[in-house]
Design brief:
The chain is of the alpha+beta class. Helix content is 51%, strand content 15%. Strands 1, 2, 3, 4, 5, 6 and 7 form a seven-stranded mixed sheet that branches. A four-stranded antiparallel sheet has the order 13-14-8-15. The mean pLDDT is 94.
Length: 555
């Protein structure tokens, strides 16, 4: 899985379209990066850019954007409603998929170093990337804003992490951080009352409301020993919220910022609003996610609501997304198109022809054509995907069988494992073709690097079918378990799945052998062939035992 991070730089310019276009062009011109959004604000005189990609190109795009911003934005002439202290005011990196926060922190600090050394910006690291505990909070780092920088930078306490320690009148200072993904999320109510929406927001947000006694609405404010009001926390951690009225739609909403999805996911916020609204005689009618979200947000929500129904969660991503959208009413105010609203889908290169996107008929015709790919390797992966899908199907059907309601979790766990197998097999269909393309490209490379590239491409062309074999045997376990405990009416499906997985393993094994003969490293070739033979033998043994057990049960 590719590592994806999001970069959300905020520039102190929201009125000059030429400046914003130049910054956007700097991002767009960086290979491997997709610019998702440019959100300018005239009153704040500030623009939020959002782009995503793998870490290296994202860092490059951020440096390019910063360089343009430093040339075109003069902070000594800036005014606006939003707190700020630099031309590129803040630049957080956010892990999206396939990457940990710890890894994102390292990339943020590398970005901070590049901005300081290559662009000449004064850099402070904040949030998870902070080098000192007292600098984690952005408000603390930016205290006093641009106007306070000359005095702050003169003190040893506020020596920057990277870049010039002297005040830079034109560029000011920049805060570079690593933070969790923040979702702006609004829940729609069947009321026009901002006061009632606020009451629900106070119920759910982490900050809660000021405590009053004896009556929580009209009583006296409770104060601590220092005379400060005492607050009663709300239901949800990592949640900020208020109530407001949206004239465009004629409804009140609970508007929330969810700042740590690992603590409070979107579906938990929705459920809490439903519960508290109901307690106040108000009904939640739907909700909306502002901007784009990682795929995991919707998949987690879909699993949550299927589990509440006692249904297997080992279904397709498309089905999980559909359940999430319908349950939370994400399309009530406007259509919710996953292709445009899910980050991983929005950045997908649709110009690249993928085998898995073809119809079954088109795939078979492409296989039968004069083109050398797809070939046996892709077909082996396809057989593995179908075999894993059959085992998953039996698990899903068994979880829904009348009289087995209490066993749905048992079968759901099996179906989830099966889904992981057939999802991975689907990606290996195209990876096998990519392996062929790499070998062809290596042979066309310059003579000075040709041998090295041929060796690397050959190893990749061996390792892809080896993974097909390994995943096929993982999926064989799904079919074996379903043949043992699954519903009797689907025994033959589990057995056919096993046969497909045997074919996948043996077919991929032949691919390992034909590619391994071109490997110059004899020790590596021997190891690859030995591993393939081991997997082939296991596949034959397990499939024969599976088929025999099914035949015995069927009589």
């Amino acid at each position: 899985m590719a590592q994806l991070i999001e970069c959300v730089p905020n520039f102190s310019e929201g009125r000059d379209a030429a400046v914003l276009d130049a910054i956007a062009d700097a991002v767009r011109s960086t290979d491997g990066v997709t610019l998702l959004d440019v959100d300018p604000g005239r009153a704040t005189n500030r623009t939020v850019f959002t782009f995503v990609g793998e870490p290296a190109p994202v860092i490059e795009a951020a440096v390019s954007a910063a360089r343009v911003g430093a040339q075109l934005i003069d902070m000594s002439q800036h005014s606006g409603e939003h707190p700020r202290f630099g031309g590129m005011d803040v630049c957080p990196l956010v892990p999206v998929s396939g990457i940990t926060m710890e890894e994102t922190v390292q990339h943020a600090r590398e970005l901070a170093r590049r901005l300081g050394e290559d662009v000449g910006l004064t850099i402070f690291c904040y949030e998870n990337a902070a080098t000192r505990p007292e600098r984690r909070n952005l408000a603390v780092v930016r205290e006093g804003e641009y106007e306070a920088l000359p005095e702050r930078l003169a003190s040893e306490e506020w020596k920057p992490d990277f870049g010039p320690a002297e005040f830079q009148p034109r560029t000011g200072a920049t805060a570079v951080g690593a933070r969790d993904f923040l979702v702006a999320y609004n829940v729609n109510l069947n009321t026009t009352s901002t006061r009632r929406a606020n009451a629900i927001a106070f119920d759910v947000r982490e900050k809660g409301r000021i405590r009053r006694e004896p009556d929580p609405l009209t009583g006296e404010v409770v104060r601590d020993a220092n005379g400060e009001p005492v607050w009663t926390p709300g239901l949800l951690e990592a949640c900020k919220g208020i109530g407001w009225f949206i004239e465009e739609y004629g409804v009140a909403q609970i508007s929330m910022n969810l700042t740590d999805l690992g603590v409070t996911p979107v579906h938990a916020a929705f459920d809490a609003c439903v519960e508290r609204a109901g307690a106040r005689g108000i009904r939640v009618t739907g909700s909306e996610i502002v901007g784009l979200v990682p795929l995991a947000v919707l998949l987690d929500a879909g699993r949550h609501y299927l589990a509440r129904q006692g249904r297997s969660v080992g279904v397709s991503d498309a089905e999980l997304i559909k359940i999430a959208v319908r349950t939370m009413g994400l399309d009530e105010l406007s259509p919710f198109d996953p292709a445009k609203r899910v980050i991983e889908y929005a950045i997908r290169d649709t110009s690249k022809k993928r085998l898995v996107d073809m119809t079954l008929e088109a795939f078979t015709h492409e296989t039968a054509s004069e083109s050398p790919a797809p070939g046996g390797g892709s077909i082996a992966a396809l057989a593995g995907a179908v075999g894993a899908a059959l085992g998953t199907m039996v698990a899903n059907l068994s979880s829904h069988k009348r009289g087995w309601d209490e066993r749905w979790e048992e079968f759901s766990r099996v179906a989830e494992a099966g889904k992981l197998c057939h999802d991975r097999m689907l990606s290996l269909i195209d990876e096998d073709t990519e392996a062929f393309n790499r070998i062809m490209a290596a042979w066309r490379a310059d003579e000075s690097v040709r041998a090295e590239r041929i060796d690397a491409a050959t190893r990749y062309a061996i390792e892809v079918p080896l993974e097909v074999m390994e995943v096929a045997l993982d999926a064989m376990g799904i079919c074996e378990e379903m043949a043992r405990i699954g519903m009797e009416a689907s025994l033959s499906d589990a057995a056919v799945g096993g046969l497909c997985l045997r074919t996948a393993t043996l077919g991929a094994g032949l691919n390992v052998r034909i590619n391994a003969k071109d490997l110059k490293d004899e020790e590596a070739r021997t190891a690859y062939l030995a591993r393939a033979a081991e997997l082939e033998g296991e596949a034959i043994r397990r499939e024969e035992a599976l088929t025999a057990s099914v035949r015995a049960r069927l009589g």
